[in-house]
């Protein structure tokens, strides 16, 4: 049975670092309160003129270099912040990367977008529509945040992360699967941008901002990611003890800790970079992995090693959630 195998990883964040001190001054709070509540100490925001496509291209270039390839059969971009409502952003990303007239489209599942995009890409490979796929998660959340909203302005950052997938064998290192995906549209109002779509194409200023009901979102995020993770573990034939690393959507440090507890994993097995980059939505899982692979000046490298059992899980607006697993291949970030 044909599997989608991870063969390249890349990540990119804009150079501008936004500290808790800068955010706290605007929200009438303290640096430590933000860090304690969210786990975030810094995040990266784009400068004017930098867009989601720009970041996606940077991450895509690095992933292609990591994979040692210059061509793929398709590009799938997970994003909530496309450069325009129409057309999709993925074709422009493909063109700027010099990939030619390949299939290219966007996936919208908010913070669960990258796992959804991986599943879609695995389907393309399994159906032999494409022999390889560049999968990117990229979001410019600073463009949709209300700077006065304490519930969102302190959490989110901008960034992009990418995987290159190729057709391979299910027994290979890097083979993704199985997948577990789910949604609950009855709770769409927990995470949303009220205006800007066909229901309200000309919103008031406040309605164009991202809004989230934090307490309810916390509860659903932990429960849905834990249940989805357990479904993947059971289908894969793994126990919790078999998991070397859990890479959850970097929503909030307290959510990540509660997720590890719910899956019965030591918190030390969490891969997390939320303290440095914040919640980067669809980019968070590939960015966390890219950071884990990046050379560290104080050590010989990141925690991921070939053969490690890795569980990926995410939760976002929709509501939408999803999980998958793999044994890490001999792949590093370029």
Automatic annotation (TrEMBL):
Its EC number is 2.3.1.180. GO terms for molecular function: 3-oxoacyl-[acyl-carrier-protein] synthase activity; beta-ketoacyl-acyl-carrier-protein synthase III activity. The last Arg residue of the ACP-binding site is essential for the weak association between ACP/AcpP and FabH. Residues 250-254 are annotated as: ACP-binding. The gene is fabH. The lineage of its organism: Bacteria, Bacillati, Actinomycetota, Actinomycetes, Pseudonocardiales. Homodimer. It is found in: Cytoplasm. Catalyzes the condensation reaction of fatty acid synthesis by the addition to an acyl acceptor of two carbons from malonyl-ACP. Catalyzes the first condensation reaction which initiates fatty acid synthesis and may therefore play a role in governing the total rate of fatty acid production. Possesses both acetoacetyl-ACP synthase and acetyl transacylase activities. Its substrate specificity determines the biosynthesis of branched-chain and/or straight-chain of fatty acids. It catalyses: malonyl-[ACP] + acetyl-CoA + H(+) = 3-oxobutanoyl-[ACP] + CO2 + CoA. Pathway: Lipid metabolism; fatty acid biosynthesis. This is Beta-ketoacyl-[acyl-carrier-protein] synthase III. CDD domains: KAS_III (cd00830). PANTHER family: 3-OXOACYL-[ACYL-CARRIER-PROTEIN] SYNTHASE 3, BETA-KETOACYL-[ACYL-CARRIER-PROTEIN] SYNTHASE III. The active site is at residues 111, 249, 279. Keywords: Acyltransferase, Cytoplasm, Fatty acid biosynthesis, Fatty acid metabolism, Lipid biosynthesis, Lipid metabolism, Multifunctional enzyme, Transferase. Its main location: cytoplasm. Pfam families: ACP_syn_III, ACP_syn_III_C. InterPro entries: ACP_syn_III_C (IPR013747), ACP_syn_III_N (IPR013751), FabH (IPR004655), Thiolase-like (IPR016039). Residues 233-328 form the Beta-ketoacyl-[acyl-carrier-protein] synthase III C-terminal domain. Residues 105-185 form the Beta-ketoacyl-[acyl-carrier-protein] synthase III N-terminal domain.
